[in-house]
Amino acid sequence: MAAPPGLWRLGLSRLAAALGLLLSAGAVPVMAQSPAPTLPPPDSVHLDRLGYMSTFPPEGAQRVDQSNAYKYPQLRWVVQHLRELQPTRNIRRGSAPASALPADPKPLGALQFEDAKGQKISLEAWAQSTYTDALLVLHRGRVVYERYDNQMQPSSPHLLFSVTKSFTGLMAAQLAHEGRLDPQALVTRYVPELAGSAWGDMKVREVMDMTGAVRFRENYTDPSSEIFGYAWASGLLPRPAGYQGAGNVYDFLKTLPKDGEHGQAFTYRTVHSEVLGWIVSRVTGQHWADLMSQQLWQKMGMEEDAYVMVDSVGTPLQGAGLNATARDLARVGEMLRLGGRFNGQKIFDAAVIEDTARGGDRERFKAGGLQAARPGYSYRNQWWVLHNADGAYEAAGVHGQFIHINPAAQMVVIKLSSHPVAGAAFTHATTLKAWAALAQALR
Amino acid sequence: MAAPPGLWRLGLSRLAAALGLLLSAGAVPVMAQSPAPTLPPPDSVHLDRLGYMSTFPPEGAQRVDQSNAYKYPQLRWVVQHLRELQPTRNIRRGSAPASALPADPKPLGALQFEDAKGQKISLEAWAQSTYTDALLVLHRGRVVYERYDNQMQPSSPHLLFSVTKSFTGLMAAQLAHEGRLDPQALVTRYVPELAGSAWGDMKVREVMDMTGAVRFRENYTDPSSEIFGYAWASGLLPRPAGYQGAGNVYDFLKTLPKDGEHGQAFTYRTVHSEVLGWIVSRVTGQHWADLMSQQLWQKMGMEEDAYVMVDSVGTPLQGAGLNATARDLARVGEMLRLGGRFNGQKIFDAAVIEDTARGGDRERFKAGGLQAARPGYSYRNQWWVLHNADGAYEAAGVHGQFIHINPAAQMVVIKLSSHPVAGAAFTHATTLKAWAALAQALR
């Protein structure tokens, strides 16, 4: 794929920064070997201090627009305001009252634990040092800790990046459970348009668990990397002058070739989630946002509407584009902990949650090279499974987004962040310590 | 203003169609002299039949995107889906229960009246023939008639075009009433950046009532017309290659020169509303969307969040970009009918509503040349005042958007439409007959 003329105008360093937002766990091994980056003091990049978009009009450095939206610290503003920069589709909560989310506050901010280097740190200091916008802990369905910072409000939708994938994965797993989608079928049974691509001889299960082999390079210094094509096709980045590439995400997916053998190794690729979402819409005949509204947001009594970024022809970014509040994500976590029921309704069948929490193939996960940041994990139905004694599993997105469920401790943790580093390599070892400390404190 | 290079690529006919959406009442006199256009049968342009954006992906003619969003009949889809094409900012309803909107249905669909040509027509047939998406009639605060069509739902926000202005006008009038904004002051007291423009020696009152003289041509066959600059600056139209013009609405406003003497004639110009909104944000220090949320949507117990389109630096389109549901607009109309109180709260002071409903200078209105479509009207605080025996006044937007308040008949009518013709010249005489028939039936 040749670089379109005009690419260089955009500047590769800017593109590299811009695409950091899409940085998947796939980039983690490289980063794990790099020295820890120098990070700005969190206070220095607080939105109160930065003053972005707070005057009429915002002037100079206070302006966040398409030219700098994915730079840092501008990204701190973007993750709470994506719809002000991009076309989006609503995920309506409906008109019913919000479901109960009872509070039983505990002084968990003072909870001490050892970080990955063995140094004592409080939960509050950890939240602060990892640029946390919202942190919410549920124990037995009660909110025992709820913390907002950086202008985030209980009503603010936050960009969830790859947490989005986990919703797409559950939808597909539910359809499989109902017999409406066959995981052993070829992708092309549902999306014949993909016949000439990597997905032409791939099974649906290999998409669900990301063991399909597709060429999708995320080399941010090489404009022929497929990640650039994704960003241009989806509208995440303005297209360079003279752009002749795919006009939308679906057309882009058709261009991606096979790269190796399917089913051998877990290889984390956002494009698998886009294909999975396409399959879900073909099977149901419904838009992803409408499924999210009908099957989750309306039934669960969410507090706020959510939304998803869409491309130029309305395709939702099913791998990275969901925005929702911490409190509504807490309801999602609790629904999963309860085996798929919430607010008096069945959201997913218990067997779907069990299949997800049981995890995927750990050997194939090892072969994917992500052991360093996520030791012992597997990936199933687009969820990260810890395979620890508590049976924990989680949805995760770059820059520090999490829905973490610990069945044994009857605990759900939501963490929404705007960390300067996209990948989890520098932070995840301590994240695991925080999960463990919380679980132990609540037992 | 020279046409930027590359303009011709876009094609003038497309631009002309595109900008029809912005067509203000200013174009009405010309149209009133034109023969009535040939209109497509409403059934032939029903969204169920057109099938826009209903498959994954939408193919060929079913696709609505930036290239055809303001063509017809694509516009029928756009007015219910603007946020899927443009950046927008939320107007949050808050977490309180929706306020009461009791129903007392009456068979008004069968109501017969004489149209402008003296032919008998039923309310239902009138709604159908004017491409009505939602029609809602309140009498003494009760919903006596509620009709949706063309895929519109009670929960669907609809693009309101220039109805938006009337919200901006009421905000400004309230600030004036509170002494926080001086209508006799120069605009530059609040927005010094406009010193070099038409607004440099204009008073705030002349902005509120649109009697300021600003050069803003809406000649759709002349790309040097200022309407093109507005569309490119705001993001309503994609910018031509090599575009060097204003990057946002505020920068565009600064470029508009004076054209005549202020205070002489009513001259309907969307850019006055953008300036008025700028003043409101300068006085309050708040974003228009946040004011709308805090002062109206949260206090009034609206059913759904509303939203407003924003430009590349977050500027709301304060003259044309609001989207809300028919039921929430009915609450607005009822609040005004009740003198500014609703849901147990003061929304506007009664004196503000009285000042608005009393109307503006009818001689200056006549001088503006809009008598043909709106005989006897005046314009005050960005509301159209009918000066009829019932004391009626209304907010109005192109393609058939209305909040109509008839105090004597204790009636509010909301009409949201996707009429092929932007201006009111062909339709307004019959619209007035419909208002009168409804008022008489309900008395």
Automatic annotation (TrEMBL), chains A, B:
Residue ranges constituting the Beta-lactamase-related domain according to the UniProt record: 129-424
UniProt key word Hydrolase: yes
Pfam families on file: Beta-lactamase
UniProt signal peptide: 1-32
Highest taxon of source: Bacteria
Key words, A-Z: Hydrolase, Signal
PANTHER family registered for this protein in UniProt: BETA-LACTAMASE-RELATED, BETA-LACTAMASE-RELATED DOMAIN-CONTAINING PROTEIN
Protein name: Serine hydrolase
